[in-house]
Amino acid sequence: MIFDTHAHLAWCVVPKSTDTKTFAPSLPAQAYLAVSTTLKDSLETLHLAQFTQNIVPAIGVHPWFIEHESDSLEVVMSYLANLLQTHPYATIGEIGLDKSIVDRQPLSMQMDWFERQLALAVHYDRPVSLHCFKAWNEMLRLFKSSEFSGVRGIMHGFSGGAEMAKQFVDEGFLIGVGPTYLNPNARRYHQIVEAIGLDSLVIESDAQPDSDDPKCSEQLGKVSQLIDCMAQHLSMPVSRLKAHLWQNSRRLFMKVSKDG
After folding, report:
1. Closest of 132, 109, 175 to residue 140, by C-alpha
2. Residue 185, phi then psi, degrees to nearest 5
3. Out of 101, 218, 227, 239, which residue is the most buried by the measure of CB atoms under 10 Å away?
4. Which ranges of the chain does DSSP label H, i.e. alpha helix?
5. Which domains are seen in the chain, by residue range?
6. pLDDT tens digits, 135-188
């Protein structure tokens, strides 16, 4: 069993009708966390999940896409709160902080959007999928605070190094292992996996359409390659690793999954 904990499924197949039921059997994994980046994207993700039992939807506004929201922060947060209330199986993501875009999205603005979405995670008791680039200390300070210390979730595409990864694990987060792991030269990424231990890892494709793979089929299929590669590096049977990653994912999403 494979749980892909980060895929932009609404980008890969924009749902138009109930014929999305035919989409699920073609997916290579047995369960997915389908993440969103905007309010519009969130609605499409929820629609897709409505017709596919094996998809857990994550809704929210990514820091790269704050400028795409035509409504104010207050309006968007109110809308997201309503969606979380009416969709008890929905989680929150992809949200976070990114210092590479401060020229167009100041960190203070990103922080406003991030903290408000974390507050929703606390209020509705939902896990989060987190994007973080070079803002690890700022993010850690939030999770060490009394206001957000109970937030749980996944650090997606983590690039902060093994020691920083351990600090997020200490705060209750899982580390998402993505396609970068397949690069034999990504030694720093391999060290993160080796350092934090099997109980804190999940697998992710980060599938999103491009000109060579418009329906994401090739990217979605890489999760099996990732598991094979990890098993080889960690010197363990593929079946054992696969079972462990599945249990880690299910443990995080058990309270919100549609099938319990």
Report:
1. 132
2. -90, 0
3. 227
4. 9-12, 39-50, 73-86, 107-124, 136-144, 162-170, 187-196, 217-220, 222-234, 238-253
5. 29-128 (3.20.20.140), 152-259 (3.20.20.140)
6. 999 999 999 999 999 999 999 999 889 999 999 999 999 999 999 999 999 998
